[in-house]
Amino acid sequence: MDLELIGKILGWTTAGTVALTGVWTYLGKSKDSAWTRLVSENDRVRRDLQEMKTELKSTNERLGKVETELEELRADRRTLLDFLRDVVSGQFPPDWIQTRARELLARMGRGAP
Q1: If residue 17 lies in a helix (H) or strand (E), which one and from where to where?
Q2: Which residue stretches, if any, does this entry annotate as coiled coil (predicted)?
Q3: 12 vs 112: which has the higher pLDDT
Q4: In the predicted model, is pLDDT for residue 29 greater than 80?
Q5: pTM: predicted TM-score of the whole model, two decimal places
Q6: What distance, in Å, lies between the first and last C-alpha atoms of the chain?
Q7: At residue 4, does pLDDT exceed 90?
Q8: What string of H, E and C letters represents the secondary structure of 58-112?
Q9: Quick check: 100 and 83 in contact, CB under 8 A?
């Protein structure tokens, strides 16, 4: 065999091996980087979900407090409307009205004047 032919065969073999190794490496990196991106995205979504659950719990607690306060305010409103009806009816003397007004102010946490 001719040395030139052997050189060409070795050259083509080397080029083929390099090309095959490059393609193999490229495909392997693509899979690894895609998997890494997928895992990273999954972790981010899990963190976001956990934060949302924490925020939801906090929001529900605040909502419960607001609903309780709203019910208390509704009860106070009903009481005040009843008192005003009593005052307007003219059935009660001014001293009773003044005493009742002080009681309501004390009960509602505003204190008497």
Answers
A1: helix 3-89
A2: 42-76
A3: 12
A4: no
A5: 0.54
A6: 120
A7: no
A8: HHHHHHHHHHHHHHHHHHHHHHHHHHHHHHHHCCCCHHHHHHHHHHHHHHCCCCC
A9: yes
CB-based burial, 48-83: b 16+ in 10 Å, e otherwise: eeeeeeeeeeeeeeeeeeeeeeeeeeeeeeeeeeeb
- What type of residue is 97? I
Residue 73: closest CA among 108, 38, 98: 108
Rama region for 27: left / alpha / beta (φ>0; ψ in -120 to 50; rest): alpha
Cα 63 from Cα 84, distance rounded (Å): 31
Residue 47 has pLDDT above 70, yes or no: yes
| Three-class SS state of 34 | helix
Place of tokens 């925020």: 55
Cα dihedral 73, 75, 77, 78 in deg (nearest 10) = 170
